Amino acid sequence: MSSSRLLAFLLLAALWAPGAVAAAPSPRRPRVDREAMREAMDAAASDEGAFSSSSSYTQFLRARLAHHAGNHRAAVDSLRLALATNDGHPLLLTRLAEEYARLGDLDKAERELRRAVERSPAYYSAHVLLGRVLLESGRFTRARLHLRRAMALKPREPEAYLVLAQLYLETGSVAEAVRVVDSLARALPGEASGYRRLGLALAERGDILRAERLLKEAATRDPGDVEVLGTLAKLYEETGRPARSEETLARALEREPDSEEVLLAAGRSALKAGSLVRARAYLDRLLSLSREPETAVRVAFIYLSGREPDAAVAVLAAARASNGQEPRLAYYSGLVREKMRRFADAAEDFAAVPEGSDVFADARVRRARCLSLAGQHASALSLLRAAFQAAPDDLEVRAEYARALERGGSPSRAESLLKEGLARGVSASLYDALAGTLHRQGRGGEAVALLNDAVTRTPRDQSLLYVLGAACERHGDLAGAQARMRAVLAVEPDHASALNFLGYLLAQSGKDLDEAERLVLRALELRPDDGAFLDSLGWVYFRRGDYPRAVEALERAVSLAPDEPVILEHLGDAYQRASRREDAAGVWRRALEVLALDPESAEPLGQRETLERKLKALSMGAAGR
Question: Is the whole model's pTM more than 0.85, yes or no?
Answer without folding.
Answer: no
